[in-house]
């Protein structure tokens, strides 16, 4: 686990490239505090350079990067873990290929040397890596199947720059980039920015399961898909057989993700996913495992009783950390600004704290992330049946009147996410043109609200167009999960875990984010995943015998934090500075009167706007502390 950087620059020198890489590496030292590595090379009038920072997890003694082939014709720097590297290594050794390290990095390089770019689809892991092939004079930059490891890049007339985090790219840009309209619009609708967009014009995220091919002779860039997907065929398989196979596949994935030369533990929230991961790890390791949970002083947010039950069941060394609002708000600046672009998922705050506490005991933690996407665990997945029934019964004109009336009835003065909140969200998501799922994933501003609060010249009126072209009318559970993999998982959930854990130099691994497991669940009848309103049905049935009766059916609220309240009190002064009229006019992004009224109504408790105001607050914090300083 580490971070990588790279530069290709025409009409440049090795000395210049080395200086830039030193700056880039220094910016991500938190991702890899153990050591660094550099490769710099001249190809006629073009200088190329790779750099990395390493957090040593596998092959502590001989895994230093960059790693070369024997003839020095190929070189790699790598961020991440390859979970099936031992299997691939055995295969290559049977073909007479010799290894000089025990690292997974060398396996990637030898796989490429043997099979070329076809080798990328054989890798099971979380990764971003760069390979320079002197033979073909090409550079390949690759990102994993789910996009667990980040990769930003900018391609200009001078060449290519890429990095694990935006903070490495910004100091070596020739000028401050403009704010990207589509990236900005995606942020305010979704509360995050999914690939391939970023907040900056001209800087992109490499999409998950893609690779860049850069030809040093022609300076042409191609972006290719790694795994060529075909439509999954639903199996004719009994539930009992499928349940057994899910059981075995999950265990297999947990075992593969437990390979480490340093101490390992699990995040244990007490929910279905983390409980199953913790049980599997405890069952398959000889020694007691370490489990970590976080609780809240405010009892309505605290669920540590569930994690204690599982810890006792599996006999783990359990570590429980109770935190207060003061603990959370203490690190707000450090956490939010570390994302380098606006990011408004408030669960990043407790995610950082559990990572920070955990990193004092282990260097690797398994998480339950991805379980909801893989097995159909979100309440929002129920929207398909609701939308179909509702629009079949209620004429569209009547629906508009119902929405207007319900907005009055469901109006709240405090940050409460109960029945009124859910009714309001659902009614605004319902759609007569099959856009309902794209509506429900918008956690910030709706299409109508974008028109109310923002200047049209500064925003993209249809920022989700690229994704809608790939999946125009998501109607089924399979479609919803695919939208989440494409947008929410890559842009929000994975980003949150990567940035908050790497900020504390902790490696997090998610056994449910497994390509084999994902592909398998796509072949199952949807009722195996969601039986009526019983979500993650097959996963719970596969493991229910190991837990107390009905334990896996208990609801869990997640890492909710009361940001609506914080904005009114501890963060109030800063928020009020963000609605200064002169400042807003200078930004030239918002309809000043409308945005000021919304924020003031929230602050005075006339009407709760927690999600929208928090999204606005996180943007302005980024703007003032990062963008304005460039």
TrEMBL record:
Its EC number is 6.3.5.4. It catalyses: L-aspartate + L-glutamine + ATP + H2O = L-asparagine + L-glutamate + AMP + diphosphate + H(+). Pathway: Amino-acid biosynthesis; L-asparagine biosynthesis; L-asparagine from L-aspartate (L-Gln route): step 1/1. The gene is asnB. The lineage of its organism: Bacteria, Pseudomonadati, Bacteroidota, Flavobacteriia, Flavobacteriales. Residues 2-217 form the Glutamine amidotransferase type-2 domain. Keywords: ATP-binding, Glutamine amidotransferase, Ligase, Nucleotide-binding. It is an enzyme of class 6 (ligase). Belongs to the asparagine synthetase family. This is asparagine synthase (glutamine-hydrolyzing). GO terms for molecular function: asparagine synthase (glutamine-hydrolyzing) activity. It comes from the Bacteria. SUPFAM superfamilies: Adenine nucleotide alpha hydrolases-like (SSF52402), N-terminal nucleophile aminohydrolases (Ntn hydrolases) (SSF56235). Pfam families: Asn_synthase (PF00733), GATase_7 (PF13537).
């Amino acid at each position: 686990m580490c971070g990588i950087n790279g530069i290709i620059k025409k009409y440049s020198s090795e000395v210049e490239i080395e200086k830039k890489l030193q700056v880039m590496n220094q910016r991500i030292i938190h991702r890899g505090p153990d050591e660094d590595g550099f490769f710099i090379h001249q190809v006629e009038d073009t200088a190329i350079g790779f750099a990395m920072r390493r957090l040593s997890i596998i092959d502590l003694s001989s895994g230093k990067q960059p790693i070369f082939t024997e003839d020095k014709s190929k070189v790699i720097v790598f961020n991440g873990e390859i979970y099936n590297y031992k299997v691939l290594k055995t295969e290559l050794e049977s073909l007479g290929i010799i290894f000089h390290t025990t690292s997974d990095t060398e396996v990637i390089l030898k796989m490429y040397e043997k099979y070329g770019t076809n080798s990328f689809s054989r890798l099971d892991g979380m990764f971003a890596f760069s390979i320079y092939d002197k033979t073909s004079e090409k550079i390949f930059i690759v990102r994993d199947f789910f996009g667990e490891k980040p990769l930003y890049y900018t391609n200009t007339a001078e060449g290519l720059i890429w990095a694990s985090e935006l903070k490495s790219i910004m100091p070596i840009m020739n000028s401050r980039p403009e704010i990207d309209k589509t990236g900005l619009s995606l942020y305010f609708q979704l509360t995050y920015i999914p690939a391939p967009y970023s907040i900056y014009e001209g800087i992109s995220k490499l999409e998950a399961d893609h690779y860049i091919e850069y030809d040093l002779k022609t300076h042409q860039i191609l972006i290719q898909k790694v795994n060529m997907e075909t439509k999954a065929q639903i199996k004719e398989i009994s539930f009992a057989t499928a349940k057994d196979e899910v059981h075995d596949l999950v265990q297999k994935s947990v075992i593969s993700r437990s390979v480490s030369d340093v101490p390992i533990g699990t995040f244990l929230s007490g929910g279905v996913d983390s409980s199953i991961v913790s049980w599997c790890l405890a069952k398959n390791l000889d020694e007691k495992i370490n489990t970590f949970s976080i609780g809240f002083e405010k009892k309505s947010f605290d669920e540590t009783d569930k994690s204690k039950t599982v810890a006792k069941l599996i006999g783990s060394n359990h570590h429980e950390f109770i935190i207060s609002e003061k603990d959370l708000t203490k690190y707000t600046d450090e956490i939010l600004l570390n994302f380098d672009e606006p990011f408004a998922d408030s669960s990043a705050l407790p995610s950082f704290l559990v990572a920070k506490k955990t990193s004092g005991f282990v260097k690797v933690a398994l998480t339950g992330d991805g379980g909801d996407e893989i097995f159909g665990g979100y309440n929002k997945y129920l929207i398909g049946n609701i939308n179909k029934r509702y629009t079949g019964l209620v004429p569209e004109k009547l629906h508009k009147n119902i929405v207007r009336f319900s907005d009055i009835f469901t109006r709240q003065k405090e940050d409460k996410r109960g029945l009124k909140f859910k009714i309001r969200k659902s009614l605004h998501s319902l759609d007569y043109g099959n856009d309902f799922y794209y509506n429900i994933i918008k956690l910030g501003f709706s299409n109508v609200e974008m028109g109310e609060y923002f200047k049209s010249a500064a925003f993209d009126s249809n920022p989700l167009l690229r994704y809608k072209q790939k999946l125009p009318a998501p109607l089924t559970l399979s479609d919803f999960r695919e939208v989440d993999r494409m947008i929410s998982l890559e842009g929000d959930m994975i980003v949150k875990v990567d940035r908050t854990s790497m900020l504390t130099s902790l490696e997090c691994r998610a056994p449910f984010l497994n390509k084999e497991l994902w592909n398998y669940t796509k072949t199952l009848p949807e009722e195996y995943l969601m039986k009526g309103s019983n979500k993650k049905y097959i996963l719970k049935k596969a493991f229910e015998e190991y837990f107390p009766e009905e334990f896996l059916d208990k609801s869990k609220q997640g890492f909710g934090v009361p940001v609506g309240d914080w904005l009114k009190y501890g963060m109030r002064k800063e928020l009020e500075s963000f609605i200064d009229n002169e400042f807003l006019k200078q930004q030239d992004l918002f309809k000043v009167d409308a945005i000021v009224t919304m924020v003031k109504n929230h602050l005075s408790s006339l009407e709760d706007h927690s999600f929208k105001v928090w999204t606005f607050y996180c943007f302005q914090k980024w703007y003032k502390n990062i963008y304005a300083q460039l």
